[in-house]
C-alpha cells in the first residue's frame, strides 16, 4: 500500500509573473515563489503547484475547481476584477454571464474561466446540505 504525507496538483504555465499576479491578486490565494515555480495555497491542507514550461499548451479540460457558496456572486466579483467567463452552447449551455445553471439531472451550477496561460478553471456552487 502507498504511504503518503500529502497530495497536491500541478500544471504548467507559460509566464510565472503573470500567473503569480492572477492567482495572488485576482483570485486572492497566498502564492510562494520557489526555485521550481509557484506554490499556491488554495485551502488549509491543499496546494497547487504551477511550473514554467516554454512550450506550454493550455489544458483542454478543467484543471482547478473552486467551490463557492454562490456562483452568481463569484462570477460578479471576478468579472469586476477583469475575469472573462467562457460561454458554451449545447448540452451545458451558459447564460449571458457564463453560468451553467444546475439542477436535477443537469449537474452543478458552474462557470468556467481561464488563467493567463489559458488553463481552464471554474467556480462551482457547493451543493445544499
Automatic annotation (TrEMBL):
<protein>
    <recommendedName>
        <fullName>VOC domain-containing protein</fullName>
    </recommendedName>
</protein>
<feature type="domain" description="VOC">
    <location>
        <begin position="1"/>
        <end position="126"/>
    </location>
</feature>
<dbReference type="InterPro" id="IPR004360">
    <property type="entry name" value="Glyas_Fos-R_dOase_dom"/>
</dbReference>
<dbReference type="InterPro" id="IPR037523">
    <property type="entry name" value="VOC_core"/>
</dbReference>
<dbReference type="Pfam" id="PF00903">
    <property type="entry name" value="Glyoxalase"/>
</dbReference>
<dbReference type="InterPro" id="IPR029068">
    <property type="entry name" value="Glyas_Bleomycin-R_OHBP_Dase"/>
</dbReference>
Amino acid at each position: 500500500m502507498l504511504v503518503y504525507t500529502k497530495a497536491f496538483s500541478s500544471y504548467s504555465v507559460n509566464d510565472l509573473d503573470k500567473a503569480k499576479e492572477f492567482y495572488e491578486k485576482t483570485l486572492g490565494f497566498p502564492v510562494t515563489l520557489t526555485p521550481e515555480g509557484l506554490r499556491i495555497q488554495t485551502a488549509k491542507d491543499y496546494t497547487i503547484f504551477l511550473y514554467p514550461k516554454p512550450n506550454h499548451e493550455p489544458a483542454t479540460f478543467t484543471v482547478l475547481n473552486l467551490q463557492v457558496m454562490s456562483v452568481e456572486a463569484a462570477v460578479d466579483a471576478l468579472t469586476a476584477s477583469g475575469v472573462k467567463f467562457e460561454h458554451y452552447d449545447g448540452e451545458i449551455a451558459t447564460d449571458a454571464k457564463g453560468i451553467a445553471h444546475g439542477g436535477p439531472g443537469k449537474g452543478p451550477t458552474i462557470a468556467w474561466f481561464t488563467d493567463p496561460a489559458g488553463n481552464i478553471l471554474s467556480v462551482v456552487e457547493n451543493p445544499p446540505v
